[in-house]
Design a protein that fits this description.
By secondary structure, the chain is an alpha/beta fold. Helices cover 43% and strands 12% of the residues. The chain has helices at 17-28, 31-36, 44-54, 63-79, 115-121, 133-139, 187-190, 206-216, 235-240, 259-269, 281-303, 315-340, 354-364, 376-386, 389-398; strands at 2-6, 40-42, 82-85, 103-107, 110-114, 165-167, 177-179, 196-200, 220-224, 248-251, 254-257. It has a five-stranded mixed β-sheet. A four-stranded mixed β-sheet has the order 9-8-10-11, with helices on one face. A two-stranded antiparallel ribbon has the order 6-7. Residues 92-101 and 105-194 have low confidence and may be disordered.
C-alpha cells in the first residue's frame, strides 16, 4: 500500500525553519517500519517542497506555498490507500480522514480509523514497539478496543497494519493478512492471479458484462452456469449470488450483481478504456438512466415470454403475458429510437457501456416475435457492434 504519513509540519512552529525541519524528521521516523512491512511510505512535504522551490518559492507561507502545499495534500489523499496520522495539532487537510494518533484506511464508504494500528506503526519515540512491528503484526489478535472505530469491520485493502484482519499463512518475511469476511488478495497475488471472475450463462444479459470486460482490458476469467441444469440454484452458487441469477462478478472486494452495477464497476476500474463519461456527473447519470431502463423495463418485458411463471401460476395468465411481449418490446424500442438513441452509438459519438446492453436486447427481438428491421437505428447499431473484436470474442464464448 501507499501510506501517507501525516502530522504537524508548519503548525506551531511560527515558521521557524529549524522547528519545521524537526517536524519533518519526526514525520519520517515511521517510514522505515512501513517500508519493512511491505508498504511505500509517503510524506506530503517530500513532494511539495521540491515543487515549491522549483516554482520559485522563497518564504514559507507565500502565495506559491499556499498554491502548492494544500493541493499536494489533497492529491495524495486521493492516491494513497492509508494514512498514518501522528499526534500533534495540525492545520493540514489530512485531519479530515484521520485524527491524531490514528491510522485510517480506505473502505467502501470512506476512511476507517484504527488507533491500535497506529500504535504499532508510529514513531519509536511515541511507541517503542516499532522495531518489532513485524512480529507484533503477525501475532496481534483483532482489536476489541471500542475506541477503534470500525475495529469489527473489514477494509477494502489487504493491510499488514489493520487489527481488523486475521493472520494468514506467511510464506515471506513480510506479514500477510486478509480480511475475515470477504475476498481479498495480497500485492504478490495481484501479480499472479485473475482479478475478476464473471459467472455467466449463455443467452442471457450476462453477455453485456462479458463484452464490457473484453473491451476493458481488465484481467478476468469466466465460469459458465447451466440454467437448464439448475446450477443457478445450487448451494455453491447461491453462496456467491443468493438471488440465483446471472451475471455475478466476483471482485477482490466482494461480489457484484445486477448488470448496471457490474457495467459501472468495469468502467470505473478501467478508466483508460473510456467506457463511460466518468469525469462528467450528468453524462454518467444519463448513461445510468439508459441502462436502468434496459434493466427495469426492456428486460422485464422480454422475461414475460420465457419466465412468465415468475409473475403468475395460471396457464392462461402466463399465455396472456407471452402474447403481450411482441407489443411491449416494440413499444420499448420505439421509445429508445425516438428519445434515447443518439447515434452512431447509444450516447452519441462515443462508445459506452450502454452499447453492449442495447446489443443484447436487440439480439433478443426475433425470439420475442419482433422483426429488428422495423428499427433502423437499433439494427444498424447491432451490425456495427458485430464488427467489434470484443463482441466477436464474447459471442464466440457465448455460443461455444
Amino acid at each position: 500500500m501507499l501510506i501517507l504519513i501525516a502530522g504537524p509540519y508548519r503548525s506551531g512552529t511560527g515558521d521557524d525553519p529549524e522547528k519545521m525541519a524537526a517536524n519533518l524528521k519526526r514525520l519520517e521516523e515511521p517510514s522505515h517500519a512501513l517500508f519493512e512491512a511491505g508498504h511505500v511510505p509517503m510524506i506530503g512535504e517530500w513532494v511539495a517542497l521540491p515543487i515549491w522551490h522549483a516554482a520559485g518559492g522563497r518564504s514559507v507561507g507565500d502565495a506559491l506555498y499556499e498554491e502548492i502545499f494544500h493541493p499536494v495534500a489533497g492529491r495524495l489523499l486521493h492516491l494513497c490507500e492509508g494514512v498514518l496520522r501522528l499526534p500533534g495539532d495540525s492545520r493540514e487537510r489530512i485531519t479530515t480522514c484521520a485524527s491524531p494518533g490514528n491510522a485510517a484506511f480506505r473502505s467502501g464508504t470512506g476512511w476507517r480509523m484504527c488507533r491500535a494500528a497506529a500504535e504499532r506503526i508510529a514513531a519509536p519515540a511515541l511507541y517503542p514497539s516499532l522495531h518489532s512491528a513485524h512480529s507484533q503484526l503477525c501475532r496481534s489478535p483483532p482489536s476489541t478496543d471500542p475506541s477503534d472505530e470500525g475495529a469489527t469491520r473489514h477494509t477494502d485493502h489487504v493491510l499488514t497494519l489493520a487489527p481488523t484482519l486475521s493472520p494468514w499463512t506467511i510464506k515471506t518475511q513480510s506479514p500477510q493478512f486478509r480480511p475475515t469476511d470477504r475476498c481479498a488478495i495480497t500485492l504478490a497475488e495481484r501479480e499472479s492471479r485473475t482479478m475478476l471472475t464473471l459467472y455467466y450463462a449463455p443467452g442471457t444479459c450476462a453477455l453485456a458484462s462479458l463484452i464490457a470486460l473484453e473491451e476493458s482490458g481488465l484481467a478476468f476469467e469466466t465460469k459458465k452456469i447451466s440454467l437448464r441444469d439448475g446450477e443457478q440454484r445450487s448451494p455453491d452458487y447461491l453462496k456467491i449470488n443468493p438471488k440465483g441469477r446471472v451475471p455475478a462478478l466476483v471482485t477482490d472486494y466482494g461480489v457484484l450483481t445486477e448488470t448496471p452495477a457490474i457495467l459501472a464497476y468495469i468502467a470505473q476500474s478501467a478508466p483508460a478504456a473510456k467506457l463511460a463519461p466518468l469525469d462528467d456527473a450528468f453524462e454518467f447519470a444519463r448513461l445510468q438512466s439508459f441502462n436502468s431502463y434496459i434493466c427495469s423495463t426492456v428486460h422485464v418485458n422480454h422475461a414475460h415470454r420465457p419466465r412468465g411463471s415468475r409473475w403468475a401460476d395460471e396457464p392462461a395468465a402466463i399465455e396472456a403475458m407471452k402474447a403481450k411481449v411482441p407489443e411491449n418490446m416494440a413499444d420499448c424500442f420505439t421509445l429508445i429510437e425516438q428519445t434515447m438513441f443518439e447515434g452512431p452509438w447509444v450516447m452519441g459519438e462515443a462508445y459506452s457501456l450502454a452499447d453492449p446492453y442495447l446489443f443484447v436486447m436487440t439480439d433478443w427481438l426475433p425470439s420475442d416475435g419482433v422483426d429488428p428491421a422495423r428499427f433502423e437505428k437499433a439494427s444498424d447499431h447491432h451490425a456495427r457492434m458485430l464488427l467489434r473484436p470484443a463482441v466477436q470474442r464474447a459471442l464466440a464464448y457465448d455460443r461455444a
